[in-house]
Design a protein that fits this description.
This protein is 22% helix and 25% strand. It contains six helices and 13 strands. By secondary structure, the chain is α+β, with helices and mostly antiparallel strands. The radius of gyration is 23 Å and the shape is elongated.
């Protein structure tokens, strides 16, 4: 790959900006200062440094699990809050897409990849990958209310504005204000709308898992690459 293209992909600088830092002697290739933007580099074996910091580009599809904290948007361009890709230290962030976005105030498992067909398999309802949510309710629900909610969620609920009811799901109460909801689909604000159907409000929401992928070992804001075995299970 041409050196100026390599720098541009690794840093998101324009090709013109990449040439400027080359001419300023800020780039070394294998410990030698290089100014030639047309030099071809081996993206696997050559060591390219910018002001002493290594540069790299993606060499294939990436599959990433992020433990999303609150306060971050699942968008590619920041609007009112920082975006989730700011938490991930990999090159070519712009090529990553998100499988199943989470609201700014929602935490938990988020999958990102640049493999479009894989992302579709993760999110498509026909593949029936379960997602488990842990939720805190504003108002306590007594045993009778809990039993009613469990029954209705198990049957499917016709939410306001929808033409079809939700797919049958599993609701389990931990106590009067805490519950765990297991879904096989991802309608817009589905969890919050489902609890709203019962006249309640979700004040805290956390996605604990997506399919077989859990957050074990990851603190909020941490991320890791999925293993080949994990990727293949979707």
């Amino acid at each position: 790959m041409r050196l100026d293209k390599f720098i541009s992909k690794a840093t998101e600088l324009s090709r013109k900006e990449s040439k400027k830092i080359l001419h300023a002697s800020e780039i070394t290739v294998n410990d030698e200062v290089v100014k030639d933007p047309g030099l071809h580099v081996d993206i696997i074996n050559d060591e390219v440094l910018w002001a002493g910091e290594p540069l790299s580009v993606a060499t294939g599809n990436r599959y990433i699990l992020l433990h999303k904290p609150e306060g971050f948007e699942c968008t590619l361009k920041a609007k009112e809050h920082p975006i989730v890709t700011e938490l991930i230290a990999v090159p070519e962030l712009a090529s990553l897409c998100i499988a199943g976005r989470l609201d700014v105030d929602t935490t938990g498992a988020l999958l990102l990849s640049d493999d479009g067909s894989w992302l579709h398999r993760v999110t498509s309802p026909k593949h029936e990958h379960t997602k488990v949510y842990e939720l805190t309710l504003a108002d306590p629900m007594n045993e009778e209310e809990q039993a009613h909610a469990i029954k209705k969620v198990g049957e499917g609920i016709l939410l306001e504005g929808d033409y079809e009811p939700t797919k049958p799901a599993t609701l389990a109460f931990i106590d009067e204000t805490h519950a765990r909801l297991t879904l096989e689909q991802g309608k817009y604000h589905q969890v919050k709308r489902m609890m709203g159907y019962f006249g309640n409000k979700v004040v805290e929401l956390h996605r604990a898992s997506i399919g077989h992928i859990t957050l074990d070992g990851l603190e909020k804001g941490d991320s890791r690459f999925l293993s080949a075995e994990e990727v293949a299970k979707f």
